[in-house]
Amino acid sequence: MGGRTTRQRRAVRRLLAGRQDFVSAQELHALLVAETLPIGLTTVYRALRELEAHGGVDVVRDEAGERLYRRRSADGHRHYLVCRCCGRSRPVEAEVVEEWVDRIAVDTGFAAVQHTVELTGLCADCDTTADERGEGPSCRWEPDHRGSRGRARSCAS
Question: Packing angle between helix 25-34 and helix 41-53, nearest 10 degrees?
């Protein structure tokens, strides 16, 4: 991560490392404040932007478009399939996407090409619930047990 390595930035990295789920900057901020760490929301956003720029986090968007962050695994960049209903996430094999991006870069002469792929659907639990009632799923990023907005949850270890 670029910039100074402050106590606050280390705390952001520590909290991300201890979570399997995607989390918003606001939720990270609230968790840090609950630990009685003096940190501003701007500092949390700055730390997350730096982590993203240096490949330290994966980012997805929730239904409302809010960016959610998760520490990137040691094996690098991943794409996720996120349930539109409950927010559960699962990493997916996307080598074909990476190859396509590389080919586009070569074909167009562009360098340092970046991409964003958003995959959403209904997980088996949400789809089953909908089938049992004979209608669409009722959940829509419901709040979790901490009372915060719904979050993308991981179903991968």
Answer: 120
The mean pLDDT value of the chain amounts to 80
Q: What is the pTM of this model?
A: 0.65
53 located within any domain: yes
Which residues contact residue 80 at a Cβ distance below 8 angstroms, ignoring those fewer than 6 apart? Answer: 58, 60, 89, 90, 91, 92, 119, 152
8 A C-beta contact, residue 72 and residue 13: no
What's the token pair of residue 71?
């520490």
Is 119 a domain residue?
yes
